[in-house]
Q: What sequence folds into this?
């Protein structure tokens, strides 16, 4: 289990028990990262911060699978709903192609439903566009939707390596307090990359023209996470509080507190 996730979740647990925990400080820093990367942080309640281009469209890459999966969970056939877990968790392009052909209206309808003005499918999931703001807003708004639970559970249990062999461990996944992440990358693996993550009270998205090192560097430089979820309590306190924490269901349908959930290869 990664220490950063234990710290985040333990802090959330203590908040549920009424313990004093410093306020979250997850925000995009003022300034302009330049044309390479745009970022956005969307908080529960609607407050958000972002880079100057946070609402500008960029290639959605595999983040588009989140929009596709959400629509299918709400509107698709039962046999297709069961495919969303693997499509998101292992970033399966094959399943995305299959489901996008079957439900070509899905991404555009989600964009309309949530008011995502930079999000459009362009007729194929792999050519979709979105923005860091749209992505962070969307994930923040679906966190409490029980129908969307398989999407969030897949993000919280993403494989360490995607179906195409690309390693899933970069970008916003490196931030403190993150519980789940979806990753995206271009076919050449270096032209464009993206990531979106959620935590207890926030969602954060970043999109970069460059490789994973460029992306992660910009995320860590431009996201302010000072004093977020400090470990000022014991591990025993966190375990004792686990019963009050919301849970996501694992692949076998067993309830687990979020602290025990880490990516499973």
A:
């Amino acid at each position: 289990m990664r220490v950063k996730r234990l710290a985040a979740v333990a802090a959330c647990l203590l908040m549920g028990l009424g313990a004093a925990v410093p306020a979250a400080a997850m925000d995009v820093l003022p300034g302009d990262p330049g044309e390479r990367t745009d970022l956005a942080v969307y908080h529960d309640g609607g407050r958000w911060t972002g880079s100057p281009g946070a609402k500008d469209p960029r290639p959605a890459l595999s983040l588009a699978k989140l929009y596709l999966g959400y629509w299918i969970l709400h509107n698709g056939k039962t046999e297709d709903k069961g495919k969303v877990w693997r499509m998101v968790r292992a970033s399966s392009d094959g399943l995305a192609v299959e489901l996008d052909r079957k439900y070509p209206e899905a991404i555009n309808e989600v964009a309309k439903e949530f008011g995502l003005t930079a999000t459009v499918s362009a007729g194929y999931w792999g050519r979709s566009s979105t923005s860091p703001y749209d992505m962070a807003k969307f994930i923040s708004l679906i966190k409490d939707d029980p129908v969307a639970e398989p999407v969030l559970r897949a993000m919280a249990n993403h494989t360490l390596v995607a179906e195409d062999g690309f390693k899933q461990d970069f970008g916003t996944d490196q931030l403190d307090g993150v519980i789940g992440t979806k990753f995206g990358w271009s076919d050449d693996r270096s032209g464009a990359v993206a990531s979106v993550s959620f935590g207890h009270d926030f969602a954060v998205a970043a999109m970069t023209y460059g490789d994973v090192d460029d992306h992660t560097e910009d995320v860590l430089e431009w996201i302010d996470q000072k004093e977020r979820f400090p470990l000022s309590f014991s591990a025993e306190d966190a375990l004792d509080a686990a019963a009050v924490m919301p849970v996501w269901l694992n692949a076998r349908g067993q309830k687990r507190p979020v602290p025990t959930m880490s990516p499973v290869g």
Q: What stands out?
A: Residues 3-260 form a domain with the Beta-lactamase fold (CATH 3.40.710.10). Residues 1-24, 228-265 have pLDDT under 50 and may be disordered.
